[in-house]
Amino acid sequence: NAGVTQTPKFQVLKTGQSMTLQCAQDMNHEYMSWYRQDPGMGLRLIHYSVGAGITDQGEVPNGYNVSRSTTEDFPLRLLSAAPSQTSVYFCASSYSGQAALDGYTFGSGTRLTVV
Amino acid sequence: QKEVEQDPGPLSVPEGAIVSLNCTYSNSAFQYFMWYRQYSRKGPELLMYTYSSGNKEDGRFTAQVDKSSKYISLFIRDSQPSDSATYLCAMRKHGPGGKLIFGQGTELSVKP
Q1: Would you say the C-alpha torsion B6, A66, A9, A18 has a positive or negative sign?
Q2: Residue A90 pairs with which residues in a beta bridge?
Q3: Are A53 and A66 in contact (CB under 8 A)?
Q4: Which of A40, A41, A102 sits opposite B98 (nearest CB)?
């Protein structure tokens, strides 16, 4: 099925460990983004990309790195996990500039716990 | 101050009630306004969108935008237990690659 695929669905990390959250889409969307969702905070933008080779910071980028080598993939890297990064992470994609409205398609999320 | 404010609730209503969900915003450059619905342990899905001011209706759902007051609303008529979810407002400026800014989300429970 076409859409946004996130892996893994669940992950437990120890403080200081590193990991990569994977995100792939097969809709040829130019725009991809990562959000974290915490209780009472809504969705907060971490990093985004308007196309392959182009990334930029969002509202809460500290502690996270991204790269965009292909249109399909947009991995999120945690270099040294901290308990404050315990959250649910969502990847989202959309067309960019091709339509009057960009409605995002979200993945099903990755639940990350840092102990 | 957050650019988009939304009452987190929770909001509990009986089946058949009319539900009103609201968001306020501070950035007058926002042009596109959306409502997403998120079921428990799922990703958000686009429910409705409007461009600039005005109303839009889709079945039991009506979205309203009042740009002069920087206020948007989602009304749900004849609410059903299947409407129980978290509703997030979102908005963005005009132009390509615009970032979506979300409200905190309102948790809605419709009791049979």
Answers
A1: negative
A2: A35
A3: no
A4: A102
Q: Which tens digit of pLDDT belongs to each residue from B37-79? A: 999 989 999 999 888 788 999 999 999 999 999 999 999 999 9
Q: Say which residues have a Cβ less than 8 Å from residue A39's Cβ, sequence separation at least 6.
A: none
Tell me the sheet residues that pair with A47. A34, A57
Element (H, E) at B85: strand B85-93
**Nearest by CB to A108, which of B32, B43, B97?**
B43
Report the distance separating Cα B67 and Cα B95, nearest Å: 18
**Residues of chain A found within 8 Å of residue B34, distances taken between Cβ atoms:** 103
CA–CA distance from A6 to each of A48, A79, A92, B42, B95 (Å)?
16, 19, 10, 12, 27
* Residue found by looking up tokens 């306020």 in the block: B24
Cβ–Cβ below 8 Å for B43 and A41: no
Which of B102, B106, B107 has the most A C-beta neighbours within 10 Å, making it the best mutation to test the interface with A?
B102
**Residues of chain B found within 8 Å of residue A106, distances taken between Cβ atoms:** 43-45
HSE (side-chain half, CA atoms, 13 Å) at B86: 24
Residue-wise pLDDT tens digits, A75-89: 999 999 999 999 999
Q: What distance in Å separates the CA atoms of residue A10 and residue A24, rounded to the nearest whole number?
A: 17
